[in-house]
């Protein structure tokens, strides 16, 4: 898989150019590699249907169902949203966007029309050597196929 951009603020080079695990995530992966974990699952837990949860549990369950499949990056260049979604200042509480942000704040750095993010050519991808970017067409073998 080619490297992907980190999605963090492109004006802050200290955050890294390419997506990577956080130091905490990396430490957890190292522990897993060393066998330092509790293997407590016999099988994956059966999900509880939403209607069986109390009303006060349902909002959190919907948030978790939406976000648990996300990788957390990349947000630059953004297709669904840009790097501002990863900034603490965007939120008033966990998972709640500040209602005082101006209209268009989340999408102002995105392509217009939005389809241009998918259709523009050439596509810039990181090559096999770290730090080297290549230009390729959408049909290049360097890019994964999506159906």
Instruction: Classify the secondary structure makeup into a structural class.
Output: alpha+beta
Largest sheet: 2 strands, antiparallel
Order of helices and strands: HHEEHEE
Q: Name the average pLDDT.
A: 73
Q: Tell me the radius of gyration.
A: 19 Å
Globally, the shape reads: flat
Strand fraction equals 5-15%
Q: What helical percentage do the residues reach?
A: 10-25%
Based on DSSP secondary structure assignment, what is the total number of beta strands?
4
**Which stretches are low in confidence, meaning pLDDT under 50 for 5 or more residues running?**
137-147
Per DSSP, the total helix count is 3
State the strand order across the main sheet: 1-2
User: What is the CA-CA span between the terminal residues?
Assistant: 17 Å
Detail the topology: elements first, then pairings.
Blueprint: H1 23-33, H2 58-67, E1 91-93, E2 96-97, H3 116-119, E3 123-126, E4 133-136
Antiparallel strand pairs: 1-2, 3-4
